[in-house]
Amino acid sequence: MIREPFLDGWTVGPKLGAFEAPTPESAPRPVRLPHDAVRDLPRSADSDQGVHTGYVPGGVFEYAKSFDVPDGWRDKTVRLEFEGVYRDAVVFLNGDAVVHEPNGYNAFEAVLDPYLRYGEQNRITVEARAHRDSRWYSGAGIYRPVHLVVADPLHIPLDGTSVTTPDIDADRAIASIATTVRNGSRHTRTLRLMWAVTAPNGSEAASGTAPVTVLPDSEAVARVRLTVDHPALWSQTTPSLHHVRTTLADEDGRVIDADTATFGIRRLQVDARRGLRVNGETVKLRGACVHHDSGPLGAATFADAEDRRVRLLKAAGFNALRSAHNPMSRAMLNACDRHGVFVMDELTDTWTRSKVAFDAAPGFAARWRHDVDALVAKDLNHPSVIMYSIGNEILELATPAGSAWSRRLAEAIRDRDDTRLVTNGINGIIANLDRLGADAAPGDAAGADASDPNTMMATMGDMMAAANASELVTKSTEESAAVLDVVGFNYAESRYELDRELFPNRVIVGSETFPSRIEKMWELVERLDHVIGDFTWTGWDYLGEAGIGRVDYTDEPGYEPTGTAGPYPHLLAGCGDIDITGHRRPVSFYREIVFGLRTEPYLTVHPPRHHGRPTATTPWSWDDSASSWTWDAEPGAPVTVDVYAPAEEVELLRDGVSLGVATVGAEKAFRARFETEYRPGELVAIARSGGQEIGRTAVRTAGEPGLTASAERPEITAEGLGFVAIALADAEGVVASDADRLVTVTVEGDAELVGLGTGRIRTEESFAGPSVTTFEGRALAIVRPTGRGAATVTVSADGLVPAVASLTIAGPASP
């Protein structure tokens, strides 16, 4: 069998109608997959997609590629495996329609056999469209990898081997393996399957074999139960992975296909008394919601970028990710398996009632089983996946029809995989929008602006907690909650203690919560056994829903309140613990302290130029501050300093002189605040409890800044990516965070620049580069190899010595 990447030699351009004349602007341009067709389109304030996508327009796009089809393929089956095309993908071969996949997040196959022209070049075209169909930046086009597969008509299809481990003891585990065999021939065939399980150390752990008879033009499933002795269990601390090699042979013993699947052996338990247990140990989920875009790469999905996100999120204290609000990429699932991160994988943002004009709701009733099948088939072998979420803030959930849909979807998941938990992101207010006017809890909930759910929730404030704990929400969501193994609540922590009394067997997870309230959320999670975790919105910043986490200064000339919608040119949400370049924001360190994972205090400073100015924030906002003592301010300028610490008090020193002691938690838990003056030098925070020092930290003023460029990994693979951190820093590496300037990136050698960006949420600069203005002294360049060898990344800026980073490109494929 041939299975190879099908990524090069493509073009993309606007899809023209049959009677539309081409123009210079519509001329196709060459691209390499994965590719986001809208990332580099001109943004404007009057974009009809508006704040949802960060003012990026949509469109209809056509990808095309010609490839040779040799005569030798006549007795083979030829197909393309697409990991995701956004959205309403239609695949054509030589002008003939092959397959239509409406869901932009599903993997799917295009079987080319009926339309191939052997002995000549064939032309593949793929249509994709994105237009007012998402509440966030979706991207568009063939944004996930594609593989060409040439196989025998008798073969193992995509996701054809699944492994579960239903029976685990200390000294052995049962691997229950099921393999699907597809027979595309005209004859009944009896074949033989052979399975070999490899332990994490590379040794063979178990093996088995079985015959399988497959009728013409049909599929058959062969099963085996193998005993793995003394299994290495998968967990967040020891993410041990096993592999099973499946071989398909004909009657004469000739191997005609083979497949390798990765799985983990772990035991999953949950109940209201002991919470969530993995391998018998209680686990509290320190969760992050994440969208699917990759920041400067747009929606294009690369294994190295997904692995980097997972690594950095875990290093920041998270042990769980929720894929919001669509199925997670295969690459990110693989990374979560490798790094020991739990996953809540989500099916959809809508069922039958639309949230935006052209979303997927109208077709949901016709295709929901197909979408469930695709989700489970993708996830089944991944030990990181512990929960399937059947939806997010579903509008019809509190109706009888919505309850029926809840049950239907939950049972469909269980029919296909009963080894994992089923949840749903329930927002009782969103589910009762049409009833809040007459029946809401105290407060004028009906007066909140419901035209945008984010604005509505921000406007309601504390009243939202009362509404979520109302009898209306209790009764109207009871059935939809009862069909779940774990009840996910979005912004409804007011139900946590209430439901312990009303529904003593209910297990709860905070499926989506405000980042500004993590200290309150985590206290509930730690104290209540039936609450198994918290998922903040969001762990990693993202494109679209522009400005929901911004901080506005209301005395700015021309300022007008806009709810949570950030006016153009806002591009990013601005609410991630980690920004789109991978840089941790102050909220990330605060959260790490709240989680109990950090004793060292963290020092962050509000810009002196904004001291005393009135601000407007949203519940998704954090303070406008940075861990820096380098500011464009006059000595003596007033400044606010915050120190986060798990302590009783903090002493602040400037150049060795005490500026006073502040109580931690006087205004906000885990925070001490100081009002002082800005003077260049060194600022030190010392945290104490019981009179004893538990940790200290320092920031100092940067000297003369220069350009630095540092490759995160100097050696990368030809199939991977290189990430180059750019900074304005002095000779000791201290970043000058208040002296931003335009930098230009050039790449020479066997690589090309594919992304350039910063964490600035309001910008008109393009991710395509080659220039960008640093943000708080930093930027990130992403390069993609064009071959094996070496590449040099040079960063320049007027008046500064250029900085150079070198990359070696070699080795095996990326993860």
Automatic annotation (TrEMBL):
InterPro entries: Beta-gal/glucu_dom_sf, DUF4982, Galactose-bd-like_sf, GH, GH2_Domain-Containing, Glyco_hydro2_dom5, Glyco_hydro_2, Glyco_hydro_2_cat
Record domain Glycoside hydrolase family: where: 708-803
Keyword Ribosomal protein in record: no
One Pfam family cited in the UniProt record for this chain: Glyco_hydro_2_N
Record domain Glycoside hydrolase family 2 immunoglobulin-like beta-sandwich: where: 164-266
A Gene Ontology molecular function term of the record: hydrolase activity
Glycosyl hydrolases family 2 sugar binding domain span: 62-149
Highest taxon, organism lineage: Bacteria
Domain DUF4982, first and last residues per copy: 636-694
Domain Glycoside hydrolase family 2 catalytic: 276-435
Annotated keywords: Glycosidase, Hydrolase
Recorded family membership: Belongs to the glycosyl hydrolase 2 family.
Protein name: Glycoside hydrolase family 2 TIM barrel-domain containing protein
